[in-house]
Amino acid sequence: MNDIKLTEIKAIAANKRWDDFFSVENAGKAREFHEGIPEYEKTPLACLSDLADYLGVKGLYVKDESYRFGLNAFKGLGGSYAVSKHIAGLLGKDEISFEEIISPEVKETIKDLTFVTATDGNHGRGVAWTANKLGVKSVVYMPKGSALERHENIRALGADASITEYNYDDTVRIAQKQAEENGWVFIQDTAWEEYEEIPANIMLGYTTLALEAFEELGDVRPTHVFLQAGVGAMSGAMTGIITSYYGDDSPVITIVEPDRADCIYKTAEAADGKLHIVEGDLDTMMAGLACGEPCTIGWDLIGAHADFVMSVPEAVAARGMRILGNPMGSDTRVISGESGAVTTGIVYDLMTDETLTEFKNKIGLDENSVILLVSTEGDTDKENYRHIVWDGANSAKR
Ligand SMILES: Cc1ncc(COP(=O)(O)O)c(C=O)c1O
Q1: Rounded distance, CA 137 to CA 157, Å?
Q2: Closest Cα to atom 13 of ligand 1
Q3: Could you report the per-residue pLDDT of 32-46, keeping only the tens digit for each?
C-alpha cells in the first residue's frame, strides 16, 4: 500500500564502548558550557495535547530546536562544544567556559586557527557562528544542490563557504583533505574509525537538548521517542543519553530516515556487524538527512540501545511540516523544516493509516503512549518550506 518500511534492531553485535561517555555527568558538562553562551536559552518543549487526543495517544511532546541560538536548528550545540573542547585541549585543560574562550588572552592564543567542515547547512552554520564569536576563520563546504539561503546564512557569519559538485559524503572527504593540506582543524559531525574524538564531543554537545527536555518533562516519562537520522550522530547521542538517564525505564526508540538515504536502516536490516552505505545523489528534500555513510559512534549507540529503524518517503516529511505548522485546537505552532518534521509525519501515519497497524503494534503505540519528538530545524530553506507546505512534497525544489 505504501512505501514505509520498518526493521527491528537486533543487538547481535552491540558495541557498548561509548555508553559511559554519554553519561548524565558528561552531558551536564556540555550543558554547563552552553549555559555560558550569552544567546543560550532553553528551547521550548511544545506539548501538543489536542494532536495527542486526535491520534489516540496519551501525550505528544515536540522539542522545538528552531529557537536554538537564533540559528534555526539544533546543530550549533555540537560544533560549539567540540570547538571548546579542542581549545581546552590546546590549553592543557579538560573543559573551558565560553567566557574564558573569548577572553583576550585565549583569543590571542587561538587567533591563527581555521576551522573547516562539510555541511548540508545546519552544522556548518553552527561552526561558522562559533568561529565568528571567537574571531577565527572558518571554511565550509556544502554538497551539490545545497539551498542558496543556507549557503548565504553561513557566508553572513564570515565563513568562506562554497557549494561543491559532490554529495554529502564526498564533500566531507574534501573538507578532510583541505584540513590535512592546510593545517586546519577539521570539525566534522560524523565519525569513522580513525576520526572519533571531535565527533564524540559534537555528539555530547547535542545532549543538552535532551537534558532540557527531560527536566521539563519532570515526572512525565516518555514511552516512545522517534529520532530522525542522517549519519546517525544526533540520534545516536540521544539514544546514549536517554539510556543513561532512564536506565531500565528507557522508552522505545525508533530511528527515522528518508528512503533515499537510509544507511542506518540498511545497516540495521543487514545485521551483519558491518556499516552499510547508500551511494549516489541522496536526492531527498530532507537535506539534513541526506547522508549515505553511518557515523561509527552513532551506530554503536543505536545498534546497542535503539529498537527500530524506519525508512520513509518524502511525503511523510511534508505531512509532518503541515501538521506542525497548522496545529489543532490550542496546540502551539511549530515551524518545522524538511528534516525536522519527518518524525511527526511518521507518528501521524502510524496512528491513522490502517495499513501500518502491524508496525504500530510492533512499536507498541497505543492510548498509554507518551511520545517525545525533536523538531531539529525550523524553515532553514524558506522558499522550499513554502512550496512544500502550500503545494505538497512533489513541489519541493530540492
Ligand atoms: C535539521 C537536522 N536534523 C537532523 C539531522 C541529522 O543528524 P545526523 O546527521 O547526526 O543524523 C541533521 C544533520 O545535519 C539536521 O541538519
Answers
A1: 10
A2: 288
A3: 999 999 999 999 999
